[in-house]
Specification:
Layout lengths: L2 H15 L10 H16 L5 E5 L5 H8 L7 E5 L15 H11 L9 E3 L7 H8 L2 E6 L5 H14 E10 L7 H13 L4 E6 L3 E6 L3 H10 L5 E8 L2 E8 L1 H18 L1
Parallel strand pairs: 1-2, 1-4, 2-3, 4-5, 6-9
Antiparallel strand pairs: 5-7, 6-7, 8-9
Length: 263
């Protein structure tokens, strides 16, 4: 079995048996996009570690960890605040819940792979020294302008030439500064990084010279089970993925069921 097939299979098992058991905000449709992009990178010989700012209880970080190939690592960055404001209904703080999930679902991370701290105090040199260059960087940390701009800058500085940056809540009415900071940053770097895929919750960026490769991959991927519509952002083609009605209904029903179990 190739490394590509192995990664697809183990992420598929995670999505089928564990994904909904972990409290989090990532939808299954975006998780499948993660799976397809990460596995495709491996199939294409694109190497680098994976990273996420904003881990919460680990739902999407665990998916990234399953995408590791060879000596690649997976970096998680979060404040992991344990005060009452961030305590779950079971009375467990974020860091305790994350560690519990690591033990329960057998996810292993080295000390270098977990940073309990503020991404505003993190620099590119520390990231590279811990895990090397990054091929897939998920950003779901602070949602204020300063945080989003900082996290985008960090991701860009450590990204491999064929790497992907994924931002959460770009299109959420609750967090307008995420969109403002994102599009201001894209203009600031003169379209060196461009969006290529958008969903209800996330926006995916890559280096401009790789956009056509990822667009072609998305169009040809039969596993996404989504409706594709083409639009543009700053004159760059972007594919908008809409999950099918059936997949949306199933996702909501299963997530609601497991939310009762988690509580």
């Amino acid at each position: 079995m190739s490394d590509y097939q192995h990664i697809k299979r183990r992420i598929g098992r995670y999505l089928g048996f564990t994904f909904y058991r972990i409290e989090g905000y990532s939808s299954r449709s975006d998780a499948v996009i993660f799976q397809e992009l990460i596995a495709w990178q491996v199939d294409q010989g694109i190497h680098g570690s994976l990273a996420e700012i904003g881990v919460h209880h680990g739902r999407s970080l665990f998916l990234l960890a399953l995408g590791r190939s060879g000596s690649e690592k997976c970096l998680g960055v979060d404040l992991f605040e344990d005060d009452a404001l961030y305590t779950s209904r079971r009375g467990i703080g974020q860091f305790a819940a994350f560690r519990s999930n690591c033990r329960k679902y057998q996810f292993n991370f080295t000390e270098d792979e977990i940073i309990k701290g503020n991404s505003l105090e993190l620099n590119a040199q520390e990231i590279v020294s811990r895990v090397g260059k990054i091929r897939f960087f998920s950003i779901d940390g602070g949602h204020m302008y300063e945080h989003v701009t900082n996290d985008l800058r960090l991701a860009a500085e450590v990204l491999t030439p064929e790497g992907i940056i994924c931002l959460d809540d770009v299109f959420s009415a609750l967090w307008p500064e995420v969109a403002i900071a994102t599009f201001d940053w894209i203009r600031t770097v003169n379209n060196r990084f461009v969006p290529f895929v958008a969903t209800k919750h996330k926006l995916y960026l890559c280096h401009s010279n790789c956009a056509s490769l990822y667009l072609a991959m998305i169009r040809e991927d039969k596993a996404l089970n989504s409706k594709l519509i083409s639009t543009s952002i700053f004159s760059n083609e972007v594919i908008v993925l809409f999950p099918t009605v059936t997949s949306r209904v199933v996702d909501r029903a299963v997530d609601s069921l497991f939310s009762l179990i988690r509580s």
